[in-house]
Amino acid sequence: MATGQFPADDAETAANVFAGELKRWRTLRGLSRTTLARRMGYDRSYVSKVESGAKPPSRDFAFHAEKALHSGGALYNAYREHSSSVERSKADGQLVRAASRPTQPYADLIAGGVPPVGR
């Protein structure tokens, strides 16, 4: 997913992209929400809310989902797009839920410093 793909006022769309990616990777790996939640260290209901788009993903949630599902960077990149959209919306003066931008590069967070392979 390319940065800047969404309009500045469309943080919700970016969150829905993350939710779609989460569901796609969970299904691809053959995991239930309960099993994924256990692997991530989260409650099943929280995973369900993020996957349905009812709650925005947090940085920690995206990191744990990425690790549990081995998505090659797809989930973390979708989170980063969501985070960027939220920041752009806030800069435009719109009220959206706050989400923090990752402070560490992807490679430092995932796979022991090895960058993800392209999709």
Automatic annotation (TrEMBL):
<dbReference type="GO" id="GO:0003677">
    <property type="term" value="F:DNA binding"/>
</dbReference>
<protein>
    <submittedName>
        <fullName>Transcriptional regulator with XRE-family HTH domain</fullName>
    </submittedName>
</protein>
<dbReference type="InterPro" id="IPR010982">
    <property type="entry name" value="Lambda_DNA-bd_dom_sf"/>
</dbReference>
<dbReference type="Pfam" id="PF13560">
    <property type="entry name" value="HTH_31"/>
</dbReference>
<feature type="domain" description="HTH cro/C1-type">
    <location>
        <begin position="22"/>
        <end position="75"/>
    </location>
</feature>
<dbReference type="InterPro" id="IPR001387">
    <property type="entry name" value="Cro/C1-type_HTH"/>
</dbReference>
